[in-house]
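[Automated response] Your request has been received and processed.

Submitted sequence:
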Amino acid sequence: SAVNVGFGAKAGKNVTDVRVFVALSGSGVVRLESVERAIEAGEAGNAEQVRQAVSSAVKPVDDITGSAAYKAYIAGEAIGQLYAEFLKGGV
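Generated structure:
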């Protein structure tokens, strides 16, 4: 797989203990601490803002598994979907 992701957090009055990981083919596994901080601070409070933050934070490379743009898009979409489910009470 060109992109694998992980998301975890605690829900309550505020979103805390956020962890966001992305594994990109050709780039390795990266923890996106800037995205975690943005979510905890309320700067990325909805799925679209999280998608944009992830897509901007990852540094993928072009290779046989896909272009850098494709990998950034998929990483953003996947984490955005996980965050949307988390907000609904899932994940």
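Summary generated for your ticket: The beta strands are 3-10, 16-24, 28-31. Residues 37 and 48 are 16 Å apart (CA to CA).
If you did not submit this request, please reply to this message.
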